[in-house]
Each structure stands twice: as C-alpha cells, then as structure tokens.
Amino acid sequence: MSQLDDTSRRDTNTASARVHSEAADDPETDSREYTFEDVSVVMGTYNEAEAIGTVLSDIDRVTDGQAEVVCVDGSSDRTPEIAREQGARVIEQEPQGYGVAVRAAVLAPDRPVVVTTDCDDTYPMEQLPGFLALVNEGYDVVSGDRLYHGGKAMPVFNRLGNHLFAAAASVLMGTRVHDTTTGMRAYRRSVVEDIEWTENTGLSAELLVRPLMRGYDVREHPIRYRERAGESKLDPIEGGAAIAKSIVKVALEERFR
Ligand SMILES: Nc1nc2c(ncn2[C@@H]2O[C@H](COP(=O)(O)OP(=O)(O)OP(=O)(O)O)[C@@H](O)[C@H]2O)c(=O)[nH]1
Ligand SMILES: [Mg+2]
Fold this sequence. Notes:
With 257 residues, the protein is of the alpha/beta class. It has helices spanning 6-18, 49-62, 79-85, 98-107, 128-136, 156-173, 189-194, 203-213, 236-255; strands at residues 39-45, 68-73, 89-92, 113-116, 141-145, 185-188, 218-222. Helix 2 (49-62) packs parallel to helix 3 (79-85).
C-alpha cells in the first residue's frame, strides 16, 4: 500500500466521499481563500510542560502569530501558565480523557477552520500550511496520515495497532483509510458543529469515520511524525481496546443511521 503514490490512493478515497455530500449546500463551504487568521489550532493538554513551549512557539512562528491557539487543560504542572504566557486561550477542565478534552477544544473556536494537534511535539507545525492549502482546495476534513512515511517514531505496538484500526475501519466503511487515530487534522468548523460526538479515547477515529460516512470531502494527507516529548497519556492496551470498540460502534451507527 505504501508503494502507491499519494495522488492515486487519495483520489479513490475522496471520489467515493464526494458522491453524496451533505456539505454541498453549507454556506460555510464557500470559495473564500482562508488564511491563518481564519484558523484555530486546538489541543487537549495534560501535564505537557516539557513540550508545550516548543509546540506553541512553533505554531506562532509558522503562522506568523495569526492562528488562534486553544488549549483545554487538565494539568497539575505548569502547562497552563506556559500556555497563557505564550498567548494561548486556556479552558480549564478536570482530566477526563483525550476525547472529552478534544471535543471541548474543537467546539470552542468561532474561526472557520479548526486544526487539532497533540501537545507533545510529535506533529511538526511546519505542516500547517499544507493542511490549510487542502482546506482551500475544498476539502472539509484533512487528516494527517502518519503511516504513509512509515511512522517509525511510533512504538512498534502502536504502529501495528494503527494499521489494524485502519484496516478494520476501511472494511466497515467500504472506503480505504490509512490512519484513523492521528491527532493532527484540519476541519471546516461546520463539520465539527454539525455532528454529535460520543467517543472519548476513540474520538480521533470518530472524527474521521462519521464525516467520511456522511459524505463530506475527506482527504488523508501524508505527514511527518516524531518521537514524543514527555510522558504518554495513553495506555496502549486499554486505549487500543477502547479505540477498536469506538471504530466498530461508530461505523455501525453511521451505516444504519
Ligand atoms: N485536557 C486533557 N488533555 C488530555 C487528556 N488525555 C490526553 N490529553 C492530551 O491529549 C493529547 C494526546 O494525548 P497523548 O498522550 O499524546 O496520546 P497519544 O498521542 O495517543 O499517545 P502518544 O503516541 O504516546 O503521544 C496530548 O496533548 C495530551 O496532553 C485529558 O484527560 N485531559
Ligand atoms: Mg501524542
């Protein structure tokens, strides 16, 4: 699969998603070119003091200070102070898991383009212009595919799990996807507002599966991924089981909706 060139495999994917687009009549799916002044970069942050300074300064540098940053924070370390010092909007929330934080984060902004990331320095922010360019090409969701380049920075167990999640989701949806649990995506805000989100650890997969199965224009986009700074907040076994369950549940709900 990794032998296929980017254009061929993605065109197949998006063609099927275009057949019955619910987004077609949406007034926000307009032809205006977005700039970083239209972008909010959002994230859950949970004891990420080791990484947050770099992540936020990278966003600031790459977007020339134009993108808004929203952190939904449950930390007991200095993460929220660092975030505020660097100009981010911080929303405090008791730690309740990835999806509870990220759902609040994607729903907080009122800018038209919402980009999610992890606050662990795994996603190079130099990739932000590529995401924005694809939204400007007309895509509703642009999903970073970490496995396209091999995902070598991922622990082997996680990498294997991610290949299995993608295979299972592809079978259930009838559309080939390659990375269902990526933390870095761009969404038109209308997409995140129009769908009801139910998952926690599995939210990342849900944020891909539901829009795809509703006919939004979804595009996977190969991205670089590097080793995490600081400690992981995900238990690979428990988290992996929760993600698998979410993929099956959400895909079946969408199929019979
Ligand atoms: N506010 C909040 N943020 C959280 C919570 N759990 C995770 N996060 C944040 O969500 C993001 C994703 O968590 P990670 O630990 O990176 O999970 P992961 O990417 O699946 O695992 P790694 O591959 O080890 O990075 C990070 O920025 C975390 O700080 C939580 O309960 N509350
Ligand atoms: Mg991470």
